What does this fold into?
Amino acid sequence: MNKILLIFGFSVLMVFNACEKTEKVEDFPKHDSKLVVNSFFRPDTPFVFKLSKSLSPLDNAPFRIMNSPSAYIRVFEGNSLFDSFRVNPDGVFTGNISRIPKRNVNYRFECFYPGFGIVRGEDYLPDSFRFTKIKGFNTVRNSADNPWDSGKSISHTSQLDFDLDAANLSGDYIYIEFSLGVRDSMFGWYYETYILPEEISGKYSTETIVNKIFISNGGQKISDLRLRWDMDKYYRTGKVRNDYRLTIYSCSKNTYEYLRRSALQFENMDDPFAQPTPVSNNIINGFGIFGGFNRQVLKISF
Amino acid sequence: MKILLCTLACLVFSSMAHGQRTIHGYVQDSATGERLINAYIKVFGENTTTLTNNYGYFTIKARKDSAVLLVSYAGYENEAIQITPASEMPMTVTLKLSLIFKGATVTARKDDKIVNTTQMSSVSVPISQIKLMPRFFGETDIIKAIQLMPGIKGGSEGTTGLYVRGGGPDQNLILLDGAPVYNASHLFGFFSIFNTDAINHVQLLKGGFPARYGGRLSSVLDITMKEGNMKRYKVEGSLGALASKITVEGPIKKDKASFIVSARRTYLDVLLQPLLNLANGNSGVKQGYFFNDLNAKVNWKMTKKDRLYLSYYTGKDKFYNKSEPYSYLYDGNYISDEREDRNQWGNGLGALRWNHILNEKVFINTQVSYTKYYYEVYSSASNSEKNDTSLNERFNSNRFISGIRDWSVKSDAEINKGKHNIHAGVQVIAHRFLPGSTTIKYNETGLRSIDTTFGSDKVNSLESSIYAEDDLEVNSRLKMNYGLHVNLYNYKKSFFPTVQPRLALRYLLSKTWSLKGSYANMSQNIHLLTNNTLGLPNDLWVPATNIVKPMKSNQLALGVAKSINDMYELTFETYYKTMSNVIEFREGASFLNVNNSWENKVAAGKGRSYGFEFLLQKRTGKVTGWIGYTLSWVKRTIPEVNFGKEFYYKYDSRHDLSFVLNYKENEKWDYGLVWVFRTGNAITLPTASYPSYSPDFLQNTSSPVYSFSGRNNFRFANYHRLDLSVTRHIKKKWGMIDLNLSIYNSYSRINPFYYKVGVDNRGNKQITRVGLFPILPSVSIAFKF
It folds into this structure.
């Protein structure tokens, strides 16, 4: 019987010993570096390209700016050469100031960089859109002085209604970056906030990523949009000044997908349950983004 | 419906021309009265064969009034029964445990069942054989044994997942006494909920589904509990490293009614509590984990033609962490804190079944069953501050609960008409889903309290099905099973009807060779949202909806079966399966993101799998076991995933080889060996990183973009392990003791459980492979009397 108990006790100890064992993976495939070409273009600035080199995901080195003076970039508008330029003293490939991209036009580029094959990309600059009407309100539901210091707790409901120039929006990709501008007078913090999908109404398709609302994926035309949110905030001493800022992008599909997916990838970086998010890449023979967009900023103070 | 009625009418009328002797009755164990499922019955001198059903009942035609029945069953002596015109029906055939192996329970069978039946793609491992296999933490496990069969994969290391012919973990219909089980695992999937001491029979179908089965795409795991000893009281139990169990069975009234009760519980929490008290400085914190099971069954022979069964199962897993109120004095205030966290999940089911022999040709079974699965996470904290003038109390709690509950009524009839063996039946299932409800409470003295619940809506759906199938002996060589399963699924105001044809053919090439083929069309009206890694209980069952539609599949299988010297069974099978509306999480979707409803987190698409399976099984003699090999491909195409390109499923594994060996040296010693090899599962890892770019500043940002060459673009390292066991049987005056020593993963291979991207001590990025179980010996002691 004693032997049985001894064996049994040993077995229980082995159960406790069973725990995870870790081994470094040594045979991870070697990375073959490619040229990274990043360029967003819009209708108020010339083309700007930032070049770098891709790294292995296990590489600790910082990303290197690629600024060889013998490298050059050619941009085509349709089939005609639109601009051609080399790196400037800041290490950036910037187009001629007189060569500004136009809306509703296709652009493509070719990048010649020593040691890499020709890297290409293509995209278009979509038309912009206009708000025909913006309405909003802000209701303070509760305002209480904090007994611990001279701060204040405020709960309020806000709502913004947009009427959009729908005719220009067909097939466009739109997303909104939303931030609540509460400037804390002590530290000057600028808070960001969330809008949940159920707090938005209107005809649109949406995917919310933190404070970015990817609101139209090109499949639907938006004619009206309502954003409504509740806010509970505690403000420290001093003057309280609130404003909401909405940065609204109407962009090409490539731009939209790049921004949506990279934001999602970044958001899920530390979430072990999140599915991997590949970021779309429209650079042939390389990595990066070549995408067109329009940008408008709305600042609503109250 | 018209098609089904026509089929039924054809079946009945075409069979009326025959007029032969019908022999029917039950096959049971001579010592216990336990009914024997899938016992093989053959009329001597004729080519007529049949199997007993899930209630041990059979019906068979003989050409003459007098005949000899040959009856065989794994582990029992064969019987030849003389039937005369005066033989009373329904008859009871009793089989004795094989004398050679009595007590040690090694399977012994000599028959040609594998060659003669139309059913293909069927897997069955006798419980007696499962008990001889090497154990994991001292526990025998039905599902772990089934995973060693070709075409079936277990998912992650050590877990009890079932991935059958490329299907997902939700595509298995797991039935315990006819009632579905929604979560068949304990302890994150490392153990199944099935207590082998309470189980009589296990069968898994991975293709060639007869029309009587429906509701899932990939497999049917049909588990039947023991009925209880009709002759005498019997107790058996075991002490393992992790859990102990005890089973009591016996007659309520001898040969008339019996019962069985079996219970199991882990005791890690009890053993660890003193250590935790020491670690926590006896602060009064109680924390731990346990799981338990209770199986119970009563059966009653009401009349010679009627029998009633009542089955019950309940089981749960629970993590808990509870602190006693902790008080202290701070700044003149008496402060008291208390905290409770728990995470629990479990199943419960009950089934009432009534068998009735209407006449010699018709056997009817009617069943009412209830099943539920729930999952709960709860945390609460309370705090009070008290001084001479005031009392301030705070309480907050957060509770998440999800689950599914079914009520089901079904009635099946088995009709034997000459060369036709017809099954027909109806079933109605009422589902109620709670996909996920969160309740938040907050109370504070002097402030407005909060008590709010999100997502509390329960969702109802209704499934009705009707089926008919005929196992027809066309001639001495050709036998076929054909049928229809019609299902009508109703969710809110939407109806999803499906007509699912089934066909299985067997052609005898010789007495020992047969050629088999099957086609099955299946549909499934529920989905499981799972993280595809651990068998975590936070998997959510959800109904098919207008957005996420019912899944459908078509499977075609071809194979040959051979019986070698009545000792070996050899099967080769090849299959091709297509699936539609299979779901995957969208890119970036996460369980932790509560902002999105489940419908927005998933995307539906197509899947296909194909492969080849080989099985050589030996069931008789001192050495028993099998060699199984699978060569397979599993792929998915989801428009919103991997940019719409086809990708390998996470559990795609090219080669899968298993070798199982049991050796009985004598009545005292048994030895077991299992060796498994399989190609690693697929995993998504980044292949490059580069700077991201901001449109606001036209600058590269500090956060990198990771590039993936595709979904599931890498492979885990190959998986292999060797398990060994030795069992000593010791006879005592009062009964029997079995001592088992098992060694899991004998050569301590670090098989990957998951991969982790992180940094080492020097800050260098690295990918590490994390394995859970190195060499793991365990001892268990079983007794019975």
